[in-house]
Amino acid sequence: MSEKHRLVDAGAIVGIGATEFSKESGRSDLQLAIEACEAAIADAGLKPSDIDGFVTFTQDTNPEIEVAKNLGVGEISFFSRIHHGGGAACGTIQQAVLAVSAGVADYVVCYRAFNERSGHRFGTGVQDRAPAPTADTAHFSWYSPHGLLTPAQWVAMFATRYLHEYGATSEDFGRIAVADRKHAANNPKAWFYEKPITLQDHQESRWIVEPLHLLDCCQESDGGQALVVTTPERAKDLPSTPAIVRASAQGAGENQDMMTSYYRESITGLPEMGLIARQLWNTTGLGPDDMQAAIIYDHFTPLALPQLEEFGFCKRGEAKDFIADGNIELGGRLPINTNGGQLGEAYIHGMNGIAEGVRLIRGESTNQPPDVEHVLVTAGTMVPTSALVLGRDH
Amino acid sequence: MADDAAKAAFLAKLKEFEGREVGTQDGADEVNQAMIRHWVEAMGDRNPVYTDAGAAERSVHGQVIAPPVMMQAWVMRGIAPPSRGPGNAQDELMALVESEGFTSVVATNCEQEYDRMVHLGDHLRNRTVIDSVSEEKATGLGVGHFITTRVEYETLEGEPVGRQMFRILKFRAGTGRQAASAGDGEEQARPKRPRPALNRDNQFWFDAAKEHRLVIQRCTGCQALRHPPRPRCDKCGSYEWDAVDASGRGTVYSFVVNHYPQVPSFDYPLAVGLIELEEGTRLVANIVGIDPSEITVGMPVEVEFVDHDADLTLPAFHPTK
Ligand SMILES: [Zn+2]
């Protein structure tokens, strides 16, 4: 990959829209997707007929052609889907930037919608019958027969080793949850609005899988989130304040597995995030000191720590001190997850975090820090993943 | 029944039941909204097409339908059904298998097919036939025979609605490989552990485990060991490989203790380790023979093998003695 790829400042997020975030939406996944896209298009000051591209997750069950049909979009000239669960989130925006900068589409909608709580839940599935033996399913043969079945359990294996190597404690994980919930308490859209927690609440919550307490695990949510991407030039003609995609990157590390990269020499880092950090920083000339806020993917608290380390906000093994010193709180060096994150606002596979990144650039977060010039947004951890640097237009 | 001739004679008697009609049964009530409502509430199924006449009318069905899987419920014989009278094929068959000690029962499979939707006011009837009786099988629960019945459902007017294949295992309590945990044999069978998806890249490893051997894939090009197995060596590029027996000794590189969700195939709290073998490769396996609260990273462990059922044997690791 070239150090100076051509995607720097090549796209802008000009619209964001979401459904309410709930535990029981009472309507289909598809309807959630359509509603979110409609809201995002309206927020951008566009009409559905202006849209000519869609990007979503391979894990999403709402085909772009159904969404387009329902919105009355008409013809679409670009469509793409990204694999690897929550790792896809920022990757959808990169796809859109690639498309608009290459001229294959003008206005691309990225979306993700599901009834993850009231419909199919990720933490359950186990079957008595062997699945078809593809490379994807054979991978899980090394885990599921032993009872290692859920994302929380896969993540916990890293967390134990991280605690062991760096002398961190469960309270260091808990501080992420406390900060998220504090921010959610001030966000009316958050599921845990006005419901902050204390570190003691965290410590007293039941074990899900040691060393993860219940309050280390993100919620399960019903909802949809969509974002509209175009070129920075077209963004100038639209009513909203654009969030410029200063840089976008995907990454799969060496010896990468889906959720279980247990066979690397060290398992306490996230080399795929390191690869993404190198791309973001090298292509823009920006660095951790240029970020005034961050949305750090938080499906489970333990993996927020190595993300802070991989992006250079602190040294390896020192995230616990960075966090304990109050840096991730409002008023701190790097307020994170100002919407409440996925623990506090909703779990929409990282897409709601990108929308919060846009609000931070617009100055519209309910927990708005002053003078936000740049925001880092990351996607799923322990999977091939992605991240963005969003910035103000000048 | 130890000797083969006696077994064969018994099986021949059982086989005579295949194809015999058990009888017909009329549903006690017509298909009605009250029973549908109770059923969908119990199942947590909120599809309005089952309960909301307005929504159902706007749906493709045009009217309220009963949940298709309720088919069996419309013609059930009740909690304390009356005798079907002498000479009933099913009662005779049960008496015969029980006379040989196969007194415990567990339902193992149920498959349904539907010909059409069932609507309010339909009145269903079923007709049951003994479909098949298996030879004697050694199962995880115990030694027994599988008995499959085929039940055809139709309206009282004779219009086919669907059919159901229902299979039970009649077995001798205490004869299974899991006899210790099966208790009195009448309690519910423990579901099997999730099945591995086996293919040409990983089958050898699970086959070796069945022989109580812990093996590691080895590249025959450069002798590098690798786990989990893969088709190609990333070091030398060779597609050729074999497998070597591991010493079975290693250390706990990391571990977790699962508390929730509790899947019935496992006992909780469930310790799962990432074990680093002394050969250098790592693998995931259960940690046994120690209170989970006493497991530590770096702890030396040794392999043992657990036969979970006829098709699945897995290594587990206990603290080195
Ligand atoms: Zn080799």
Could you give a short account of the major beta sheet of chain B?
Answer: 6 strands, antiparallel
pLDDT < 50 runs, ≥5 residues of chain A: none
Q: Could you tell me how far the N terminus lies from the C terminus of chain B, measured between alpha carbons in angstroms?
A: 43 Å
Radius of gyration of chain A: 20 Å
Structure annotation, total helices of chain A: 13
CATH homolog superfamily of the largest domain in chain B: Hotdog Thioesterase
Concise structural overview:
Chain A has 394 residues and is α/β, with parallel strands linked by helices.
Outline the structure in words.
- The complex is a heterodimer of chains A (394) and B (321).
- With 394 residues, chain A is an alpha/beta fold.
- Helices cover 32% and strands 16% of the residues of chain A.
- Chain A has one domain: Thiolase/Chalcone synthase (Peroxisomal Thiolase, Chain A, domain 1, 3-Layer(aba) Sandwich).
- In chain A, strands 3-2-4-7-1-8-11-10-9 form a nine-stranded mixed beta sheet. In chain A, strands 5-6 form a two-stranded antiparallel sheet.
- By secondary structure, chain B is an alpha+beta fold.
- Chain B is 16% helix and 34% strand.
- In chain B, a hairpin with a 4-residue loop joins β11 and β12.
- The longest helix of chain B is centred in the N-terminal third of the chain and has 12 residues.
- Chain B starts with a helix and ends with a strand.
- The interface between A and B is large, with 43 and 42 residues.
- β5 of chain A pairs antiparallel with β10 of chain B, so a sheet runs across the interface.
- Bound molecules: zinc ion.
- Zinc ion (ZN) binds next to loops of chain B.
- Zinc ion binds next to loops of chain B.
